[in-house]
Amino acid sequence: MTETVEGGIRLGGEPEPHGLGASVQAADVYAKAAGTYPYAADLWAEGLLWAAVHRAPHPHARIVSIDTEEAAAMPGVRAVITHADVPGDAAHGRRVADQPAFARDVVRYYGEPIAAVAADHPDTARLAAAAIDVEYEVLEPVTDPEKSFESEPLHPDGNLLRHIPLRYGDHDVVGDVVVEGLYRIGRQDPAPVGAEAALAVPRPDGGVELYTASTDPHTDRDLAAACFGLPPEQVKIVVTGVPGALGDRDDASLGVPLGLLAMRTGCPVKIAVTREESFLGHPHRHPTLLRYRHHADSEGKLLKVEAQILLDGGAYADTSSDALAAAVSFAAGPYVVPHAVIDGWVVRTNNPPSGHMRGEGAMQVCAAYEGQMDKLAERLGIGRVELRMRNVLATGDLLPTGQTVTCPAPVAELLTAVREAPLPALPKEGPESEWLLPGGPEGAGEPSAVRRGIGYALGMVHMLGAEGTDEVSTATVKVSGSVATVMCAAVEAGQGFATLARQIVQETLGIDEVHVASIDTDQPPAGAGARGRHTWVSGGAVERAAKMVRTQLLQPLAAKFGMSTELLSIADGKITSYDGVLSTTVAEALEGKELWATAQCRPHPTEPLDETGQGDAFVGLAFAAVRAVVDVDIELGSIRVVEVALAQDVGRILNPRQLHARIEAGVTQGIGTALTEHLRVAKGVVRHPDLTAYALPTALDAPDVKIVKLIEERDVVAPFGAKAASTVPVVVSPAAVAAAVRSATGRPVNRLPIRPQAAVSGS
Fold first, then answer.
1. Is 146 helix (H, G, I), strand (E, B) or coil?
2. Which residue in 259, 260, 255, 261 sits closest to 281, CA to CA?
3. Which residue of 148, 234, 370, 428 shows the fewest CB atoms closer than 10 Å?
4. CA–CA distances in Å: residue 515 to residues 239, 586, 705
5. Is 416 exposed, middle or buried (0-12, 13-18, 19+ CB in 10 A)?
6. What proportions of the chain, in percent to the nearest 5, are helix, strand and coil?
7. 8 Å CB contact between 617 and 325
C-alpha cells in the first residue's frame, strides 16, 4: 500500500520519524516516483534554441581546416562556434587547465568537441553539426599507456601526468615466500540513467545563467567563467534535479558551449545529449595495469609489498592525480606492511578521458592486492581468511605513507563477521525447477557443470579530499514560525544530504517542518559531492548553524529563569528545563521572531605526499569486509553472484533505511565492475557506445545483499562520527567476486571485468 506524506504527517495520523538515527524518507521520493521531479531535460524557456556538438571522428588527428559555412547557412541555424569564438582562457580543467573548450589544432580523443551549433529545432541543430566540414590529417593514436612514456608528446605539457615513488621501510627485505601477479582493470563508464541536459540563459549584464545538474556548481562556474572571459559574478549556475551522479556530472562539456551560444545569440539555448554522446563526452574510470610482488615469512606475516601501478589518464589531466594518490597510498590494502616499494604513474593517451568515479584508485588496487593475498594463502597452505586475520590493520598502525591510522579501524571484527555469517543454501537443496543457474533462469547450462565458489576481500577508502585539499562548506539555518529552512550549496546527488540536513535541524531545534532551499552559485560554496564529504563537511556546517540558532532561541529563556542554556533541552517541539519548571513550545519561544545563523565546517588540514610518497594525506578512512558466493558454469563460463555478505564500519548510523540502500547500490555497482561493465575501445575508438553493448547490471543481476554487521564506532574528528557509506562496497565487492570465481574454478582471475574464458575449466 502506497503512503503519502504531507507536511511531515503520514495519512492516517502517524507522525513521520524524524531526527538523527531515524529512517526519514527523502523529501523528493514521491515526486521522482510520480514522474513530476524537475530534471534538467524538462527545462524550457521562451524563445528557446537547441544546441548540438560536432565531435571528432578520430582519436588523434591534426586539424587542417574547419569550414562552418554550409552549417551556418542552413535555415533555422542561429550560430556556429569553434575555438576561435572562445573569448577567454583557451583551456580549462579541474586540477590542471589543459583541456580546450573546442579542439583547435589537434584532436586528442575520439569524440572531442570541435564546434557547436544553435538552431530553432533539435533536429536542425544536429543536421547542422553534421554539416560542419573538418579536414583532418589523421595521426597514429597512442592507446597503450606503457608506450606513452616513449611516444612523442601528445600535449604541450608532456605525456606523464604524475609519478609517485613510494618508499617505506627497508627496500632490500626479501621474504621466505614471494608471490607475483599481473592484473588489469578495464574502463568503466558512469552510465547515468537520467538524460544529460542543460540550459543557458543570457543575462542583461552580458553574463549568462546555466541551469544544469552540476554536483560542484562553484567549480563549474569558475571554469566556465574563465572560458567566457567573464568575472565569476557574471556567471551563475542554478542546480537542477540531479538524477544520481557517479562522476558523470563533474565536467564542463555542456556548460561551456551552451553559455557561448547563449551569449552569441542572445537567446536561451538548451542541449540534451544522446546516449552515444554521453559515453563519449564524460570521464570514465581509469583503466589500470598493476604488477605486484608480495613478500611474507613462513607464518604468513607480510614483510614487503612491491607494486608498479599504471593508470591510463586519457588525453587530459582532469582528476587523474587524485586517483593515482589513492592507488599508491592504498596499494597494500588494510594490512600491516612494514616495508613497501611502490611506483605509480598516470599518463596521457589518445583513449577516452578518465576522471572521477566512485572509489577511483582504491578499487583498482583492491582487486590486485586481494588477488595477491589469495595466491599467498595458497602457497603457504593457510586459509584465506586466516592469512588476512594475521595481517589486518588496526587503529594506531601505520600506512605505507607513514600516516598513523587514528580513526577507528575495526578490520578484524569486520572480517570475523562475514566469515561467521551463515552461507546460502546450495541449489540442490531445493527442487530442480527452482534452481537459478548461471546464465539466468532456464539457461543453457547443465547443473552438473556448475561449481560454487566463496571469496573474501577487505578494502579501504579515504574520505574527503586529500593532499592538502581545503575542504570547507558553509550553511545557513533560518527559523520562522514553525518552519526551518536550510541554505547550503551541497548538491543532493542521491547520497542523501538533503534528508540529512532535515534530520540535523529536527534533532537540534525540535522543528518537524524543514525545507532545503534550491542551490545556485549566489550561495557560498560547499564543494563537490564526493567521498562522503557532504555528510561530514556540509552536515557539520548545518549542525553548527543549527546550534547557533538554538542558542539564540534558548538564551532569553535561560536568562529569564536564571539558568544556563545547557540546562534546557529541546525534543518533539518542546523546550523543557532539567527540573521541569520550564515547559514551552518552540513556536511560543520564538514569539514571532525570525532567527538565523551562518556557519562553516573545515576539517583538519592534510598535506601532499612528498618525493618518497610519505605524508599525512588523508583526513579519515573507512573499511569494509565482503564475502561473495558465486555459481560458475565451467563449460560456458557464465557466472551468477548468489550472495554478497558485507560488514562495514560506518561510524554512526544517521538514517538506517538510507544507509542500507546506499550499501546495496554500491554492491550492485561493484558487481557490474566485476562481471559486465566494459567500455570497449579499439585503437582509441569507442565501439558500440550504447546500453546494449555496455551491460549494466539490472535487478535480475543484483545478488542477495546481506549486511551482516554495521560497526558504530564513532570517528571523534567527524561531525556526528559518521563515515562514508557507499564507496567502500564499490571498492571491495569486485575483488570478492573475483576471489569467489577463483575458488570455484581453480583458475587465476586477474582481469576485471571477468571474461567468460577465465571461468571455463581447462581454457
1. helix
2. 255
3. 428
4. 16, 17, 33
5. middle
6. 30, 30, 45
7. yes
> Is-contact 655 24, C-beta < 8 A?
yes
pTM: 0.93
Model pLDDT for residues 748-761, shown as the tens digit of each residue: 999 999 988 887 86
| Distance set, CA 141 to CA 101, 138, 184 (Å) | 21, 9, 21
pLDDT(565) > 60: yes
Query: From CA 624, how far away is CA 418, in angstroms rounded?
Result: 10
What one-character-per-residue DSSP string does 694-745 give? Answer: S----TTT--EEEEEEEE----TTSGGG----SHHHHHHHHHHHHHHHHHHH
Identify the bridge partners of residue 514 per DSSP, sorted by sequence position.
484
Positive or negative CA dihedral for 26, 28, 30, 32? negative
Angle at Cα 401 formed by Cα 400 and Cα 404, nearest 5°? 90
Kind and range of the H or E run holding 291: strand 288-296
401 exposed, middle or buried (CB, 10 Å; 0-12, 13-18, 19+)? buried
Answer whether residue 21 shows pLDDT above 60.
Answer: yes
Cα(313)–Cα(289) distance, integer angstroms: 12
Q: Name residues whose C-beta falls within 8 Å of residue 346's C-beta, 6 or more positions apart in sequence.
A: 160, 161, 162, 286, 310, 311, 312, 313, 320, 321, 323, 324
Who contacts 86 (Cβ-Cβ below 8 Å, separation ≥6)? 100, 101, 102, 227, 260
Strand partners, 81: 116
pLDDT tens per residue, range 172-214: 999 999 999 999 999 999 888 777 889 999 999 999 999 998 8
Question: Per DSSP, what are the bridge partners of residue 352?
Answer: none
* Residue 431 in grid coordinates: 527442487
Average pLDDT for 603-630: 94
Q: What is the DSSP letter of 46?
A: T
Look up residue 241 and give its DSSP letter: B
Q: Pull the grid cell for residue 233.
A: 559574478
Residue 418 is which amino acid? V
Distance CA 464, CA 717 (A): 13
How long, in residues, is the chain? 763
Q: Which residues pair with 633 in a beta bridge?
A: 450
- Per the CB < 8 A criterion, the answer to whether 724 and 622 are in contact is yes
Check residue 692 and give its pLDDT: 86
**Which residue type sits at 690?**
D
**End-to-end CA separation in angstroms for the chain:** 51
pLDDT for 16: 67
- The residues, any chain, with a CB within 8 Å of residue 572's CB and separated by 6 or more, are 510
Please tell me whether residue 665 adopts helix, strand or coil conformation. Answer: helix
Query: Concatenated DSSP letters for 376-440?
Result: HHHHHT--HHHHHHTTB--TT-B-TTS-B--S---HHHHHHHHHHSPPPPPGGGS-GGG---TTS
Distance separating alpha carbons of residues 113 and 134, to the nearest angstrom: 12
